[in-house]
Amino acid sequence: MKGYFRKRGNSWSFTIDVGRDPETGKRKQKTQSGFKTKKEAQSACASLIDKINKGYSFDNHNVTVGQFIDHWLEHVAKRKVTERTLLNYTRALDRRIRPYIGTLKLTELKLHHGQKLVTEFLEEGKSERYIEYTFTLFRGSLNFAVKTDILQKNPLEHLELPRPRQTKKTTWSAEEIKRFMIFSKTENPYYMVPLLIAARTGMRRGEVLGLRWDKVDFERKKITVEYSLTFNEPTKQFIMVSPKTKSSYRQISIDDDLTNELKRHRKRQLEMKMLLGADYDDSWNLVCCSTNGRPMYGRSLAHHFDHVAKKAGLKKIRIHDLRHSHATMLLREGVNPKIVSERLGHSSIKMTLDVYSHVTLDMQEKTADIIKNILNF
């Protein structure tokens, strides 16, 4: 494949053959113009040929939004992000973009299509933050369509998105967590253990459900976080994925109470394994699993969490808010924010302080009282 260059007036253009139309058999060409020099045209031509050779460009006349999404996820996003992030991308686009405009021709996509969807999602009660995430992702994929000549310009470039509101984290106090655990112990212990781990370590739900026994060091009282369990909806399979960032790989110190509870739970699992025999799946080696050793569904755990919280008469929070509760309690007790950041697996201490700014305001007030007592005269 090579380009043909031509000068018209004061600008240069190039044309390249990109094969033949499968229906008509006629030669298909791409032309770009408006270059000030032949060298600029040659550079742009070489770049376009490289993209076409890598399979990044296809017929832009009939391709639909849904087909483009498939292409972008498979050939672009898949090479740049982790498997977990790719699943999140796929889930967001499949749920919020494809059902509404997936059959629309990509070249017919206009700003008003996106703006109408934003309005509909707001009216449905979708959060501003989720709407911003979805359309920032979709708009970013369309930038690739522009780079590869599928679109002349990004139709959603000027899309107006709602600004996410700053909301205060909903957390439980230490007394509320204790009350929850008392009620939880009267229920299914297989659900109680992962919730106890989440409250005492600040680990994410996927990290808790993906924790393996070989990553629990009883002697040193350490948990090593290396994987996260997620459920791949398209394939209907559980998969273990690597954490999103380097800082998510971490070791977390655990207390004696949690250590002893884990030992009891391990004994409970071994007894169940002996009872079920060949029906027990020990291949996953999970700390938090179903009674048959298989991975536990996150939704099932969330349902149990809501059930126990309601039974205990506690305000409604999410499982992820146990993580926020863990961090909030530590910061209010004066634990160094760097230590808290390391336990949470945050990429920086700044992220921790930004997320928990409401706690640092309380710390400011305590600091004022401390300096008053020090310099009291």
Estimate percent helicity: 40-55%
Q: What is the overall number of helices?
A: 15
**CA(first)-CA(last) distance:** 85 Å
Oligomer: single chain
Average pLDDT reading: 89
Number of structural units classed as domains: 3
Per DSSP E runs of 2 or more residues, the count of β-strands stands at 8
> In the CATH hierarchy, what is the class of the largest domain?
Mainly Alpha
Q: Tell me the radius of gyration.
A: 27 Å
- Quickly give the structural class: mainly alpha
In CATH terms, the superfamily of the largest domain is Intergrase catalytic core
**CATH topology of the largest domain, anyone?**
hpI Integrase, Chain A
Strand residue content: 5-15%
Could you say what the CATH architecture of the largest domain is? Orthogonal Bundle
Strand order in the largest sheet: 1-2-3
Poorly predicted runs are none
String of helices and strands: EEEHHHHHHHHHEEEEEHHHHHH
Taking the sheet with the most strands, its summary is: 3 strands, antiparallel
What global shape is seen?
elongated
